[in-house]
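pinned: reference chain
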Amino acid sequence: QVQLVETGGALVQPGGFLRLSCVASGFGSSDYDMRWVRQAPDWAPGKGLEYIASIGSGGDRINYSDFVKGRFTISRDNIKNILYLQMNNVKSEDTGVYFCFTNTGIRGQGTQVTVSS
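pinned: its structure tokens
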């Protein structure tokens, strides 16, 4: 069964840090470019799905949205089939459900990140 499972979401205070993981099973995720996307909360109207970061299949071609650049780091371990998102100096605006996607549209169920004091 082809599956992506995100974990690591939590309640964290502003300025804190988290590391999200996305474990792939049932397929070789190393064959795919990957990305992290955030679903903004309901009280943030109009935002919908927001692009966070992406990484090429070989760990190259890394890109970030301007809002997270310098704070978040995307990486992957192609031996373990895991995608990571290191989130540092988090802000309340980072709150949302974080999904990992392959470039073919496979996605996980998401993991909730809440940044609040």
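why pinned: The mean pLDDT is 93. The two ends are 39 Å apart (CA to CA).
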